[in-house]
Every structure is written in structure tokens, then in C-alpha cells.
Design goal:
The longest helix has 8 residues. With 329 residues, the chain is an alpha+beta fold. The chain has a single domain, classed as Alpha-Beta Complex (Sulfite Oxidase, Chain A, domain 2). The chain is globular and about 40 Å long. Bound molecules: ligand MTE and molybdenum atom. The site of the ligand Nc1nc2c(c(=O)[nH]1)N[C@H]1C(S)=C(S)[C@@H](COP(=O)(O)O)O[C@H]1N2 has 16 residues, from loops.
Length: 329
């Protein structure tokens, strides 16, 4: 990603390491575990390298989630090694606070994310404004271990606590005319100081086609590693769509609108050649300034091949049957 009004194109500040092929298992959903390993072995990562890639720093402890918002379901297993809590909470993209991935946690720490409401509006039979904690009691959070791939070329395995967006949408009952879902981040420069700067068009807006939004892998996230979601990861409520580039996962959501036309999403509007509306993870479609064929898993040396749909093709490829994914990137 790059910053609006900067003369030179932005550079991803990443510790570049010697490429070394590693492979990972396919599918994290119980039903697809049968697919097993694609082959190869997972590179054993030493604590030394983890230290190298994510500097150790004090992480504020989060609040454990109350029992009554946790689903009985044990969650979805993943054969990938989970990233450490410290990695997930100290290397973030959240431009409302900082464009420095290592600086977001500290800047976002002040965000007051309770009380917080989310409006579900637009082309629905039953619009509503929901208190997030009431929402979590209604739709208990279950663990979903997802591989997440940033468009910048890094990835993590994150044990989110979430519930399917489809459950909330079903409650609102979309009208037949609703074709897309638009998600909006809070717009409040007093609470999100990065919004005082003209980096992006605020508020941050993301969107999905209605069928993508209704897919069971598409979740609203309220927790991480069994704890309340920390501010830097999008407290109190953010989206996670594991087969798409990370920027689709809007953080600190205040509004979910059902609309007829494809929403004007922040990054797509900012640079349509670089960030497509669909933004499905696709190793065959390069970003204009870098390849998307490989990725660096945070905490590991070397690179992994990037898989179509981030490895979730068995679950989601049918959503795009007949579409030219080079054109609709
Ligand atoms: N509101 C908002 N949401 C956002 C972003 C952002 O800058 N602002 N960054 C996106 C990007 S590029 C990524 S990769 C993920 C990072 O999520 P994480 O920090 O929880 O890993 O958040 C996405 N959601
Ligand atoms: Mo990203």
C-alpha cells in the first residue's frame, strides 16, 4: 500500500530474508482436513528468527471474553502453526492510527471501544442499531483459525473469535434489491488521530458482493486468542474474509449497509489498478509493483507459495464460476 500525496511510491518495510520453499496444509475447515498436506515440510522456526522479524515488546493484556458470549463449538482446527499473540498484535495495518505497522499498537491503545454500536441499514426489512456486546450474546463467538494474507506480501495464522456475518444479515433480512454489503469504519478524528491526516478518504469503507458476505467463512470478529479484540486489530468489531487480501477486513466497524450497487471501497477508489474490488488472493495476478506468487509468513524465514484464494478455493471458488479473475481481480 502507499500513502496518498506521497511523491515516491511507498515501500513495504519488511525484513527480507533468504527465500526457502516451505509448504503448508490445505484447508482449515473440518470438512476439508481430508485434503491433508500438499507436500513438503513446514520449516521449523527458531525463537531467534521470530525475534528478528517482530521485535519483542510489551503487549497490553486483553480482557478475557465473558463466558456467555462464547459459543460451545470448539472452533475450526488449522494444521498451520498459529502466529503468536505478540506477532498478531504488534505488526498491524490500521491507517487510522499509524502507517507504521510496528507503531499501530501503541497509537491505538487509547481507543475507547465501549460502548459501541453497529448500525445495519439500507436495503433490509429490519434495520437495527446493535450494541456490540449484545450482539456477541446473540451470536456467540467461536474460534476460527484463519490464514490471513496481506496484499503487501506477508501472512499470518490468526485464531479469531467471531461469528458468521450471514447471521447478522439474516436477522436484518436483505431485500431482493440488495446486491452488495458495505462496511464502514468509525470516522472520528478525535479518537482516530490518523484521520486528521489526508492519507485516505475517511471513513475506511470496504465491501463484498452479497453472496460473499453470506458465505460461512466470512466472519465478524470480536476476539483474538479467546480474549476481547485489542484496538490495533480492529476493536470492538472487524471483518475477516480469509480468501481475500487483508485490506478487505475493515476494522472498528460502525455501519453495515445493504446496497444495490458495488460500493466505492477505500483502496479500490484510491488506486483501482492496484486494489481490485474483489481482491481475491491470487498468485497469478501480480500487483503492478510486485509479484503475489509468494508470501512471507510472519515469524518464519523464507517464503511460501501463495495459494489461489489463499488456500480456501475448495470452499469459495464456485462463487466466481465463469468470471475472468484477471479482469475481476
Ligand atoms: N479501518 C481499517 N481497516 C483495515 C485497515 C486500515 O488501515 N483501516 N488495514 C487493512 C489491512 S491492509 C490489513 S492487512 C488488515 C490487518 O489486520 P491486522 O492488523 O488485524 O492483522 O486490516 C485491514 N483493515
Ligand atoms: Mo494488508
Amino acid at each position: 500500500m502507499r500513502i496518498k500525496r506521497s511523491g515516491a511510491p511507498g515501500r513495504v518495510k519488511e525484513a527480507e530474508v533468504t527465500p526457502k520453499e516451505v509448504f503448508f496444509s490445505h484447508g482449515s475447515r473440518r470438512t476439508f482436513l481430508k485434503a491433508g498436506l500438499l507436500g513438503g515440510s513446514v520449516l521449523a522456526t527458531g525463537a531467534l528468527y521470530e525475534t528478528l522479524l517482530v521485535p519483542p515488546r510489551k503487549v497490553r493484556p486483553s480482557t478475557p471474553l465473558p463466558k456467555d458470549v462464547l459459543a460451545a463449538a470448539p472452533g475450526l482446527p488449522s494444521e498451520d502453526k498459529k502466529n503468536r499473540y505478540e506477532e498478531i498484535t504488534t505488526y498491524n495495518n490500521f491507517y487510522e492510527f499509524s502507517t507504521d505497522k510496528y507503531g499501530v499498537a501503541e497509537e491505538a491503545a487509547k481507543l475507547v471501544s465501549r460502548p459501541w454500536t453497529v448500525a445495519v441499514t439500507g436495503l433490509v426489512q429490519r434495520p437495527g442499531v446493535f450494541d456490540v456486546d449484545a450482539l456477541f450474546r446473540r451470536f456467540p463467538l467461536e474460534e476460527r483459525v484463519y490464514r490471513m494474507r496481506c496484499v503487501e506480501g506477508w501472512s499470518m495464522v490468526i485464531p479469531w473469535m467471531g461469528f458468521p456475518l450471514a447471521r447478522l444479515l439474516a436477522l436484518a433480512a436483505p431485500l431482493g434489491s440488495a446486491k452488495f454489503v458495505e462496511l464502514q469504519t468509525l470516522h472520528d478524528p478525535a479518537r482516530m488521530p490518523g484521520q486528521r491526516r489526508d492519507i485516505l478518504d475517511w471513513p475506511y469503507v470496504e465491501g463484498l458482493r452479497l453472496d460473499e458476505a453470506m458465505h460461512p467463512l466470512t466472519i465478524l470478529v470480536g476476539g483474538l486468542y479467546g480474549e476481547t479484540l485489542p484496538p490495533q486489530n480492529g476493536a470492538p468489531l472487524r471483518l475477516a474474509v480469509p480468501w481475500k487480501y487483508g485490506f478487505k477486513g475493515a476494522k472498528s466497524i460502525v455501519r453495515i449497509s445493504l446496497v444495490e450497487k458495488q460500493p466505492k471501497t477505500t483502496w479500490n477508489h484510491y488506486s483501482p489498478d492496484e486494489y481490485g474490488f474483489y481482491s481475491n488472493v491470487n498468485p497469478e495476478v501480480a500487483h503492478p509493483r510486485w509479484s503475489q506468487a509468494e508470501e512471507r509468513r510472519i515469524g518464519e524465514l523464507g517464503k511460501r507459495p501463495t495459494l489461489p484464494f489463499n488456500g480456501y478455493g475448495a470452499e469459495v471458488a464456485s462463487l466466481y464460476a465463469g468470471m475472468d479473475l484477471r479482469k475481476n481481480f
